[in-house]
Design a protein that fits this description.
With about 350 residues, this protein is an alpha+beta fold. It folds into 2 domains: about 10-250, Sandwich (Jelly Rolls), CATH 2.60.120.10; about 260-335, Jelly Rolls (Sandwich). It has 9 helices and 19 strands. Strands 1-17-14-19-12-11 form a 6-stranded antiparallel sheet, with no helix packed on it. β11 (about 255-260) and β12 form a beta hairpin.
Length: about 350
């Protein structure tokens, strides 16, 4: 029989990255400034960096969350989720603070990952903007017009970084905006953008703008080679109408539960405003507290204090819960299981 588990507060988990950032993460968490290359905090992670062992979230007792879930998947994830995904949370959450512009890159679909990377998950992702700095916080998403594969291939070969970036739509962002990034869509996060990122639980990035970021010309394509890697790219044009289907503006919404993303097939996200008690159904979840202080009430235990900068992993077996006290938080959920 599965155990009844309680939410677990998580410490920062910042595997080294190739780009700068991390000050906004430290400020949110109330920590001393971290190393310059600590721009990502992997929260509730059962995922490792591509080709490495770093990235897994430890619980306070030192057990890796991956191992705890494997030991009792039903308690952590719920029976319906386990029937579909096994001992797989099907979710990776990050705090990401871009201290410099990220390179132009994209991610494989589920089908491409299954065919070429021996994995059921590709890497669709979404960004919840929680803060910005600097005069012009922007993201770059999708080709402005249909791109010629031969031209893009030449950009990659010659590392024409300006042409790659100029070909993408530049979209200003502010706190409260959300951007859904389908697998295959070329993109880059601009300097000064701080996000809660939800993604499928892989580290599959195809970084066509590798020069100045990665180690060399064989480091960007996941070992697939240029021709195969480029087959995962969405070459289609994204005009204003298409962009409107993946960019949302939610800063003015203050209802108790604000649904943030347009698609629940990969993951779900809610912003919770606990001015009064917000009732939450049982689910595995990652909770990121953005503002204020409050309490998380779960079945069979005392309330848990929640304050700005806290991150929690919430097991399914914690049962129905409620959040109150005025705290504002983002609740990240795995894909909805459709029975």
């Amino acid at each position: 029989m599965s155990d009844v588990l309680r939410p677990v507060r998580l410490a920062a988990n910042q595997p080294r990255q190739f780009y700068r950032g991390g000050a906004a993460i430290a400020e949110l968490r109330g920590l001393a400034a971290t190393a310059d290359f600590g721009p990502e905090d992997w929260v509730g992670s059962i995922t490792t960096q591509f080709g490495k062992q770093a990235g897994l979230s430890p619980l306070p007792d030192g057990t890796l969350l991956r191992d705890a879930v494997a030991a009792d998947p039903t308690a952590w994830l719920g029976a319906e989720h386990v029937a579909e995904y096994g001992a797989d949370t099907a979710l990776l959450v990050k705090l990401l603070d871009a201290g410099q512009r990220l390179p132009v890159h994209y991610h494989p679909t589920d089908a491409f990952a299954a065919d070429h990377l021996n994995c059921r998950h590709g890497k669709t992702e979404a960004w919840i903007v929680v803060g910005t700095t600097g005069p012009n916080p922007t993201v770059h998403i999708g080709f402005k017009a249909d791109a010629d594969p031969a031209v893009v291939d030449n950009w990659v070969t010659t590392q024409d970084r300006k042409a790659m970036l100029d070909a993408l739509n530049t979209v200003p962002v502010k706190a409260g905006d959300t951007v859904f990034i389908p697998a295959g869509l070329p993109h880059a996060i601009g300097e000064g953008v701080f996000i809660v990122e939800l993604q499928q639980p892989t580290d599959f990035s195809i970084t066509i703008e590798w020069q100045g970021f990665l180690d060399g010309p064989d480091s960007w394509h996941l070992g697939l080679g240029q021709a195969t890697a480029l087959r995962a790219l969405d070459f289609s044009g994204w005009d204003a109408g298409r962009l409107d289907t993946i960019v949302k503006h939610t800063a003015e919404r203050r209802e108790p539960v604000v649904d943030l993303l347009p698609n629940s097939d990969f993951f779900r996200a809610q912003r919770l405003h606990a001015d009064s008690a917000v009732e939450l159904a049982p689910s595995f979840a990652v909770l990121v507290a953005l503002e204020g202080e409050g309490r998380l009430h779960v079945e069979g235990g005392d309330p848990i204090a929640v304050r700005r900068g806290d991150t929690f992993v919430v097991p399914h077996s914690a049962g129905s819960s409620k959040l109150d006290g005025g705290v504002v938080a983002v609740r990240c959920l795995p894909p909805e299981v459709r029975t």
